[in-house]
Amino acid sequence: MAREQLKDSQLQDILALSCPNSPVLQPLPVGQPPVTLYCDVSMDCIRPFGPEMFRWEIFNNQHALPYPGVRASLKTVAERYMWPSMRQDVAL
């Protein structure tokens, strides 16, 4: 995921811009041996940025649980990850 984050154009755009509504993304060491993941630290829960290549897999992992509907699925994914088009992607 760390390598894909570095290639993700949406992440690069967010890091380049400094807007008041932008997520607060910081590089954090994760795992052993540590790798650096960009994570949103603006909420109580630290959420890694989901690069485009991993979004379908992230959604499918949550969706494989008993399907609670679009709203609950969005809430579950948003509690653990973040990316700009999440609402539209999960609603598909």
Q: List segments where confidence is low: pLDDT < 50 over at least 5 consecutive residues.
A: none
Shape: globular
Write the H/E string, N to C: HHEEEHHH
Helix content: 40-55%
Mean residue pLDDT: 85
Biggest beta-sheet profile: 3 strands, antiparallel
Q: Strand content of the residues, in percent?
A: 15-25%
Order of strands across the widest beta sheet?
A: 1-2-3
Give the terminus-to-terminus CA distance.
23 Å
Tally of helical runs? 5
Write down the Rg: 13 Å
- Per DSSP E runs of 2 or more residues, the count of β-strands stands at 3
Alpha-beta content class: alpha+beta
Protein name: Transposon Ty3-I Gag-Pol polyprotein
Domain Integrase zinc-binding: 51-90
Pfam family, one: Integrase_H2C2
Question: Could you characterize what this model shows?
Answer:
- The chain is of the alpha+beta class.
- It is built from 5 helices and 3 strands.
- It has helices at 2-7, 9-16, 52-63, 70-80, 86-91, and strands at residues 25-30, 35-40, 47-48.
- The chain has a 3-stranded antiparallel beta sheet with strand order 1-2-3.
- The longest helix has 12 residues, at 52-63.
- Residues 51-90 form the Integrase zinc-binding domain.
- InterPro entries: Integrase_H2C2.
- It comes from Trichonephila clavata (Joro spider).
- This is Transposon Ty3-I Gag-Pol polyprotein.
Features:
three-stranded antiparallel sheet; 92 residues; Integrase_H2C2; alpha+beta; 5 helices; Transposon Ty3-I Gag-Pol polyprotein
